[in-house]
């Protein structure tokens, strides 16, 4: 069949067969299908969507276009996690050590931040000496030895997805749920884990702004994973305000450490417990009744914190980071408080706006080439539902340029909205699937 006929079929709302999708995708990767034809097919998908069978075929074809990491030689159940991205999302730094100290193997490839969302790799690289560039053999040996390894994504995984995503980015076809699901799962399935937990964010600071779309995306990814022979679960969590209090790379590492010590913010602690429990259930080391007690025990006993230190040391960081993080994580040079100008209740915090403030301070990237400043960011003191009095601190800016801090003060203040009447805090976990 001609590429033209494959595009026409999808444009007319019909299903493409696996062989048709394979001809299109492999031809595009090899340079035999031009950008304009792939862009036309993507736009047809944007309006007509992919069926579950088409989604699964596209995912599998992209998965097989690059390198796969076989974890079968590692004893035990291998578990992976993916977040669709948000502001202040340091969950991986917490749940990884938790589930590894419960007997699961947490072997994960993570990405860098771009735009208003942070990246796990950037957070870890704020730790002096920590390396995220692990050869596959070292990645597997470390996961086998200590139960946890985390590295940056390689260019060789899901090569077709990387090329197609770059085209989606410039043709206004990114925001289509079946394409998003296939893109994410092609990379997740390239790592030979036995199970996957998906943390799908919804709200102002998330990619999926409303619950309906977030749920549809979660269900699509679960379906793809199960068709690929994996145990998959999802948690739909709130991103209408930053998660926890810290936003910024080394600031989030500190908050992750404090959460593992049992001193974390309530919303972050709850989400990490729920995600950890679901991972234990998917991994078959706990059931609905026992999972909460097992997670609580490894945190309360210090086992999860000790696993965090072991993980950091194994990848080149200091062995005593959790006990002496102030020694290793230098603070920003300019720290300014943002004060409330009225009495009332915090009724909203624009999570995306906070993330963009942090990006402009240097905690994130406008382009992939931008250099990260690990020390800068924002500390959110007051959250939705909190009572505030005039003159109380709402947030703290951490920057290394007084000029930038002064420019962002007013912008940060505008991310807060207020009410004269009491406001209920948002529910952190919307649904468990």
Automatic annotation (TrEMBL):
Keywords carried by this UniProt record: Glycosyltransferase, Transferase
Pfam families given in the database record: Glycos_trans_3N, Glycos_transf_3, PYNP_C
Family: Belongs to the thymidine/pyrimidine-nucleoside phosphorylase family.
Cited SUPFAM superfamilies: Nucleoside phosphorylase/phosphoribosyltransferase catalytic domain, Nucleoside phosphorylase/phosphoribosyltransferase N-terminal domain, Pyrimidine nucleoside phosphorylase C-terminal domain
Origin superkingdom: Bacteria
Gene Ontology molecular function terms on file: 1,4-alpha-oligoglucan phosphorylase activity; thymidine phosphorylase activity
Name of the top EC class for this enzyme: transferase
Quaternary data: Homodimer.
GO cellular component terms listed in the entry, alphabetical order: cytosol
Domain called Pyrimidine nucleoside phosphorylase C-terminal: residue spans: 345-419
NCBIfam families reported for this sequence: PRK05820.1, Y_phosphoryl
Protein name as it appears in the record: Pyrimidine-nucleoside phosphorylase
GO terms under biological process: pyrimidine nucleobase metabolic process; pyrimidine nucleoside metabolic process
Entry EC no(s): 2.4.2.2
């Amino acid at each position: 069949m001609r590429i033209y006929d494959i595009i026409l079929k999808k444009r007319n709302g019909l299903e493409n067969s696996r062989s048709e999708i394979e001809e299109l995708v492999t031809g595009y990767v090899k340079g035999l299908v031009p950008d304009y034809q792939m862009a036309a097919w993507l736009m047809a998908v944007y309006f007509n969507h992919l069926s579950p069978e088409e989604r699964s075929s596209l995912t599998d074809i992209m998965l097989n276009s690059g390198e796969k990491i076989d974890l079968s030689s590692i004893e035990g159940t291998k578990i992976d996690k993916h977040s669709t991205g948000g502001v202040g999302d340091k969950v991986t730094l917490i749940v990884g050590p938790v589930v590894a100290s419960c007997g699961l193997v947490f072997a994960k490839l993570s990405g860098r931040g771009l735009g208003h969302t942070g990246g796990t790799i950037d957070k870890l690289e704020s730790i002096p000496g920590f390396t995220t560039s692990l050869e596959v053999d070292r990645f597997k040996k470390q996961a086998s030895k200590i139960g946890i390894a985390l590295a940056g994504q390689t260019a060789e995984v899901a090569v077709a997805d990387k090329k197609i995503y770059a085209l989606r980015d410039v043709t206004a076809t990114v925001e289509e749920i079946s394409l998003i699901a296939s893109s994410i799962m092609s990379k997740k399935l390239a790592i030979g884990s036995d199970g996957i937990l998906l943390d799908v964010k919804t709200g102002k600071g998330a990619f999926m702004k409303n619950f309906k779309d977030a749920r549809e995306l979660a269900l699509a990814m679960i379906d793809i994973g199960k068709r690929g022979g994996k145990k998959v679960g999802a948690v739909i969590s709130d991103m209408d305000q930053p998660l926890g209090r810290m936003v910024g790379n080394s600031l989030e590492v500190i908050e992750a450490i404090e959460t593992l010590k049992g001193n974390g913010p309530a919303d972050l602690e709850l989400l990490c417990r729920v995600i950890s429990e679901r991972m234990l259930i998917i991994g078959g080391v706990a059931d609905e009744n026992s999972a909460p007690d097992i997670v609580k025990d490894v945190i309360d006993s210090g086992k999860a914190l000790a696993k965090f230190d072991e993980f950091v040391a194994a990848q080149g960081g200091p062995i005593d980071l959790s006990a002496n993080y102030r020694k290793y994580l230098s603070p920003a040079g300019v720290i300014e408080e943002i004060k409330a100008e009225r009495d009332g209740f915090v009724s909203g915090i624009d999570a995306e706006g906070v993330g963009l403030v942090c990006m402009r301070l240097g905690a994130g990237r406008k382009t992939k080439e931008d250099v990260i400043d690990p020390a800068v960011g924002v500390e959110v003191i007051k959250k939705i539902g909190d009572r505030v009095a005039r003159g109380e601190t709402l947030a703290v800016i951490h920057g290394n340029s007084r000029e930038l801090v002064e420019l962002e003060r007013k912008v940060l203040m505008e991310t807060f909205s207020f009410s004269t009447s009491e406001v209920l805090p948002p529910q952190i976990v919307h649904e468990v699937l």
